[in-house]
């Protein structure tokens, strides 16, 4: 788990504008990755996802990668734990109203 944290922290430092791409990951992590990034599950095959969907998907992936640990996910995302909690609450509330 510590190795994953180190990889993510390094990628965050190298990434421009907080967007981590395959080029920010070490070669041993990139091995076996597809050449292209799959589109968001929320986007259709020929559409681009709205920024809000991309943001939500990314935050949830980081949270999952951190084993659900909000403090670690917030740090990797470069936001406060409180901001992360508010985002999650907002998305939960939006899900209840749809």
Textual characterization of the structure:
This protein is mainly α and 98 residues long. It has 2 domains: 37 residues, no CATH class; 59 residues, Orthogonal Bundle (Arc Repressor Mutant, subunit A), CATH 1.10.10.60. It contains 5 helices and no strands. The radius of gyration is 14 Å and the shape is globular.
Tell me briefly what this model is.
The chain has five helices and no strands.
Largest sheet: none
| Shape label | globular
The secondary-structure class comes to: mainly alpha
**CATH C-level of the largest domain:** Mainly Alpha
CATH-derived topology of the largest domain:
Arc Repressor Mutant, subunit A
Number of helices: 5
Assigned CATH superfamily of the largest domain: Homeodomain-like
Mean of residue pLDDT values:
79
Total number of distinct structural domains: 2
Q: How many beta-strand segments?
A: 0
From N to C, what is the helix and strand string? HHHHH
Please tag this protein with its features.
globular, Arc Repressor Mutant, subunit A, 98 residues, single chain, 5 helices
List the topology elements.
Blueprint: H1 2-14, H2 27-30, H3 51-65, H4 70-77, H5 81-96
């Amino acid at each position: 788990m510590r190795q994953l944290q180190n990889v993510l922290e390094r990628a965050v430092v190298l990434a421009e504008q907080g967007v981590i791409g395959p080029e920010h990951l070490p070669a041993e992590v990139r091995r076996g990755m597809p050449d292209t990034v799959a589109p968001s599950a929320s986007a259709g095959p020929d559409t681009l996802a709205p920024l809000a969907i991309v943001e939500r998907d990314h935050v949830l992936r980081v949270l999952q990668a951190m084993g659900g640990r909000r403090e670690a996910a917030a740090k990797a995302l470069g936001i406060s734990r409180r901001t992360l909690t508010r985002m999650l609450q907002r998305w939960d509330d939006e899900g209840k109203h749809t």
